[in-house]
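This entry is retained here.
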Amino acid sequence: MSGSNSLSINSGLPLVAIVGRPNVGKSTLFNRLIRKRRSITDPTPGVTRDVIAETWMLEGSLVTLVDTGGVTARGEGFDDAVTERSRSLLASADVIILLLDVHELTPEDEMLIEWVRPYADKLVAAVNKVDHENHEKMMWDLYRFGFDLIIPLSAEHGRGVDELAEAVAGKIDFTVDREPAAAPPEDVRIAVMGKPNTGKSTLVNRLLGSDAAIISEIPGTTRDVVSGVFTYQDRTYRILDTAGLRRKRKVHENVEYYSVNRAVRSIEEVDIVLLLIDAKEGLVDQDKKIASLITEKGKGVFLVLNKWDLMDRTPNQLRAVRDRVRYLFPMLGFAPILPISGKEGSGIPALMKSVEEIYEQLNRRVDTSLINSAVRRWVEQNEPPRSSRGRYKIFYATQISSSPVEFLLFVNRTEGFPSGYVGYITNGIRRELGFDKVPVRVSLRERRRRE
């Protein structure tokens, strides 16, 4: 298994990194440049903890723009990991945007200025929060650090952003041949979701073979959606590590509100969701709600029992856990349940094998004649019920989509058509047509038989 962090997704493009201490406005500038709300912006210092990358159209050419975590001098907990992550980008970036705050110069700023000195040839210094001309006189003292040019800007209001883009473009040689970076369309897209501190980032880093996501014992470390790419047995996988999902009444911070919403939206961007469950805590109602969102979108879903290495070794333990899950949440009867240890790597080969099987089922198309042959047989074995208006009938069936998997039944009347019988047909589709591990939708359309 080989992996890479999110920066390698567009490794064929020039890399532009925004660096600075917390709360200088890096994420606001990032969102302004890419013209959409990708990074979370909030007055709370240190909101961006992971590397966030997006393509940026710069003077008619694409580059990869990176929003980094804020650099601090505290060295506490994961703040130190965030700082080292940001520092490691300096050497690999084609252009470094050093962002300062016109209202305050701190020890972190001075430390970062020393770090970027060796990269003066690819450095663009910018001072943020220069909201009007009166603020510009506050920035002149910064020239004592030896900058050739300092660009005043207001990321919030867009002031000076064009001048910044021009300066960045001037540092890049767009004529250099670069390896193509676009991912092939057959890449499998995976999201890792679950409650906070279930080990999502540990599993992502295990799959990527890197430290793309910062790991901490503090719940809620991952606030943005962190992406990465890895290969396994000649298949390329794109993986998203999402913020931990909490019950709404426990979502207090604005930052966490946006994180949860972004995690939920990421369901639409992937093929398969790995729903991580702490094996010792077990499945809870919140997991069921997340699973409902996944199945509503027709995505593949796994119930991944993480931290299995911490469980007591008792006979038939896994069977007991699986039976309990099936009993409590019958709606997830199709979803595979797999024990793993993201920390130790156990169970990963079985997980990846199942991911491949799920992906194949999501994208399977069944010939219409085969579907109708099966439906006729199921109807002969168990006819639809009657109502006061006569027996319900199925005339025709067809598969109308894959990923999500959906079938359409043409019936004599949709009003009052028994949901139990639709379930019977759905179970037949799962059992005999090869969709036993994915959500299957069956919808009805009224069609009167021609005499």
In short: The mean pLDDT is 78. The two ends are 61 Å apart (CA to CA). The chain has three domains: 10-169, 188-362, 368-446.
